[in-house]
Design brief:
heterodimer; A: alpha/beta; Rossmann fold; 2,3-Dihydroxybiphenyl 1,2-Dioxygenase, domain 1; 2 domains; five-stranded parallel beta sheet; B: alpha/beta; globular
Chain lengths: ~280, ~550
């Protein structure tokens, strides 16, 4: 990681509502950025001068008074006139969505309206300032829990009859040499994994450890970005690249040594599919 | 038994107060009943003993309300805050709201007016007429109030740093309508301390600001006795991110600072305290809000009677306006806001508010449209006329939960008041940024809880829609700023500038003398059409400007 990202949070115009500006300043600091807050009642010229003087990477404007159409473009203009047009300007506050295209056209990079999360903003700024460090969203949920079994038929009676869960289907995944039974529980699933040939990793697991918990799969948004990020962080991987899994998903395994001997699978479902 | 006797004495005393009150304001109905014809009494009390912390409505410590009959006689005043663009447009909205059954006016001013800049000032660019009506000179005020009889309609003005100027303009319009000062009713917000803490429309440093406020107290006590000289506001403190306890604590601490300042300037507490009014927020946590209003009344009553030794019972009463919480509205699925507002408004009514503003569903997106403003007013009318909650006084009294919350809030507020006293009072605490830090800390915690989904906001972090429907929004005409500047220019040419200069010179002379009351000089200046900006600039030069903590 290079030097800290520097952000100027500014209140243009006469608006005195600075709850949002103050909360965002604090949140960006918690994301490791250096934040300079201008205080109230700054003219576009003052904001541009402060941005240049403080050598910031990005300017964030907040207005709730309805003056954004006049004042946000003025800040962009003042920066350009001082040869600092490369400092990106983002804005937020009470901004009707009909005004957003106008503001973008006038050179504002992005508008965050009421209700946007501070994480979203922080990640956006990181990406804006350094497109190389594309932010990676944390895994969303447990996609499934994989259990190695000798026989799906025998093992499933516990899940289906004793627990009363529903079998969603059975599928063979040739690449892994397994037959998989999907059993839905809440927003996630159990996967019973039965080897279909001697080369199957599940066969090797059963021979070594017997039946039992095999892996936990985590659903991620962007498996490629996540794998890159894990590599950068020095996390040992079994699969350096994603490969095809069940349901047309893309999957990759993390080495158990990286996670207290638990085998984790990363799993990204194709867009629009039910996960 | 002695207890029974005491109770029956107290009961008789209250019944007397009731007959006195009902002779002036008869109850809305001869008898009140439920849908099943069960009789609804004016008041329900415990059978055994009446807790003196609760007392009777209209009696110290006013936990159960400030009037002996509360809404059995008159509903709260339905007062919708409105104002946008030009004075003529706002006048139209006012007349519309009065026709729709609204019972009082509430003026929103644009930011330049609130911060004492004329529309043609460079600082006003982009802000003219945006969040309220633009007022530069008396002429704008005349247009704003055209056809509205000031002896019949009470007007609340959200104006703080230049409150003295706008009050004088209002009085001057009254003069022109032939309404004497004694008959003018209404409220100015005039609460500068919460501007430093939470709202941001300050101009001058605390000391001269406090002087202007006590000047108003003194002037109104003498000439405008029915006018509420201040509305000590917790609303914006809550909007800035405080919790309910902090809202009450900081508001009451500010109130005490104004009382102290007025006493120090030589006024007697009973000369101005009956004209102090308060302004609170109605937020989401329903029972906590009801308890908050009840606790606030009790705390203030005790402070005025015991600490300031006020003798007039009117000085003990915390009268308040309520507005539903603007920051609770979501830009997502804006119609959901109607439901939020209805519940918040109900909490204010069950808490015994004197007047109420209900927010419009679209205020997280822009200023309200006429449709949205009407639904907001209808919400109050439905609570008043259909729900039956106004048929008996303080109906939640005696609820174990509500009474416990009321006691707890009182205790926590007193802890804060002790801390602020240790710091040296509210003015000192504001200057040190104490309240600002407390509020900011709480605001950040709220945001984190929402993002972690520990606090659920329906339609925002749960039950969200993939695609939002964009409602019709209110738009302020972009040409307005230009027109307002043109009309100001023409007034400045038309008026007698010699008289303006004389009036401004007299104002400057008297601003230098801290014992002089500035109100008569401001009144002279507005009468000859000196502008808000001209008057405030004289005071800026004499008083200096506040620059924030």
């Amino acid at each position: 990681m290079g030097k800290k990202i520097r952000v100027l949070v500014a209140k243009p115009g006469l608006d005195g509502h600075d709850r949002g500006a103050l909360v965002i300043s604090q949140a960006l600091r918690d994301h490791g950025m250096e934040v300079i807050y201008t205080g109230l009642r700054q003219s576009p010229l003052q904001i541009a001068q402060a941005a240049i003087q403080e050598d910031v990477d990005v300017v964030g404007l907040s207005s709730l008074s309805g003056a954004h159409r006049t004042l946000f473009p003025k800040v962009v203009e003042e920066l350009e006139q001082r040869g600092a047009g490369d400092i990106p300007v983002v804005g937020g506050g009470v901004i009707p969505s009909v005004d957003i295209p106008y503001l973008l056209e006038k050179g504002v990079k992005r508008i965050f309206t009421s209700g946007s999360s501070t994480d979203l903003l922080a990640n956006y700024i990181k990406e804006l300032v350094d497109p190389q460090t594309k932010p990676v969203m944390a895994p969303k949920k447990i996609a499934h829990i994989g259990i190695a079994v000798e026989s799906i038929e025998q093992a499933s009676t516990f899940y289906l009859d004793s627990l009363g869960l529903q079998l969603e289907g059975v599928e063979e995944v040739q690449s892994e040499g397994v037959k998989v039974a999907f059993i839905k529980i809440g927003e996630t699933r159990f996967e019973l994994l039965e080897p279909i040939n001697e080369e199957s990793p599940i066969r090797k697991f059963l021979d070594k450890k017997g039946e039992g918990l095999h892996h936990i799969a985590l659903e991620v948004d962007d498996i490629h970005a996540r794998l890159e990020q894990l590599k950068v962080n020095g996390v040992a991987l079994i699969n350096e690249e994603a490969k095809l899994g069940a349901h047309n998903s893309q999957i990759a395994f993390i080495h158990p040594n990286a996670a207290s001997k638990v085998l984790y699978e990363l799993c990204q479902y194709p867009e629009g599919s039910e996960s | 038994m002695g207890l029974d006797k005491e109770n029956s004495n107290a009961n008789e005393r209250w019944e007397k107060a009731v007959s006195k009150a009902t002779s002036r304001f008869p109850e809305r109905k001869e008898t009140f009943t439920t849908s099943s014809n069960i009789k609804v009494d004016r008041l329900y009390q415990p059978k055994e003993e009446v807790n003196e912390e609760l007392g009777y409505p209209g009696e110290y410590p006013f936990t159960r309300g400030i009037q002996p009959t509360m809404y059995r006689s008159r509903f709260w005043t339905m007062r919708q805050y409105a104002g946008f663009g030009s004075a003529e447009e706002t006048n139209k909205r006012f007349r519309y709201l009065l026709e729709q059954g609204q019972t009082g006016l509430s003026v929103a001013f644009d930011l330049p007016t609130q911060i004492g800049y004329d529309s043609d000032d460079v600082m006003s660019e982009g802000e003219v007429g945006k969040v309220g009506v633009a007022i530069d000179t008396l002429e704008d005020m005349e247009k704003l109030l055209d056809g509205i009889p000031l002896d019949k309609v009470s007007t609340s003005m959200t104006i703080n740093a230049p409150a003295s100027v706008l009050l004088c303009m209002y009085l001057a319009v009254g003069e022109k309508q032939g309404v004497p000062f004694e008959k003018i009713t209404g409220t100015i917000q005039n609460d500068i301390l919460k501007e430093y803490i939470a709202r941001g429309t300050y101009i001058f440093p605390p000391k001269p600001s406090m002087r202007l406020i006590t000047n108003i107290f003194e002037f109104c006590n003498q000439y405008v006795p029915k006018f509420n000289t201040i509305s000590i506001s917790g609303y914006h403190i809550r909007e800035a991110g405080s919790n309910a306890v902090q809202e009450v604590a900081f508001t009451i601490a500010n109130g005490m600072a104004y009382v102290d300042a007025a006493i120090e300037s030589g006024l007697k507490v009973d000369d101005f305290a009956p004209r102090l009014a308060f302004f609170f927020n109605a937020h989401n946590n329903f029972f906590e809000e009801v308890a908050k209003f009840r606790a606030a009344r009790r705390i203030w009553a005790k402070i005025m009677k015991e600490h300031y030794q006020a003798k007039n019972p009117k000085s003990w009463k915390l009268r308040f306006h309520t507005q539903t919480g603007g920051s609770t509205l979501t830009a997502q699925q804006p119609d959901n806001n109607i439901v939020r507002v209805a519940m918040q408004a109900l909490s204010a009514v069950l808490g015994g508010t004197q007047s109420l503003h209900t927010n419009s569903r679209d205020e997280a997106l822009s200023l309200p449209t006429e449709d949205s403003a009407r639904i907001a007013l209808r919400t109050q009318q439905i609570i008043a006329h259909e729900s039956g909650v106004a048929d008996t006084i303080d109906p939640l009294a005696g609820s174990y939960y509500v009474e416990n919350l009321t006691d707890e809030i009182e205790k926590e507020v007193n802890n804060y008041l002790d801390r602020i006293k240790e710091i040296g009072g509210a003015v000192q605490a504001v200057e040190e940024g104490y309240m600002q830090r407390e509020i900011q800390h709480n605001a950040y915690e709220i945001q984190k809880n929402i993002e972690k989904e520990e606090e659920i906001i329906v339609g925002l972090n749960k039950f969200a829609l993939d695609e939002e429907i964009e409602p019709d929004l209110m738009k302020v005409d972009e040409a307005l700023e230009r027109n307002q500047i043109e009309s100001l220019t023409s007034i400045k040419e038309k008026r007698n500038n010699e008289k303006v200069n004389e009036a401004l010179a007299a104002l400057r002379e008297n601003a230098k003398d801290e014992h002089s009351n500035l109100l008569p000089f401001i009144l002279d200046a507005v009468r000859v059409y000196a502008s808000v900006g001209e008057i405030c600039n004289i005071l800026r030069e004499e008083f200096g400007e506040y620059k924030g903590v």
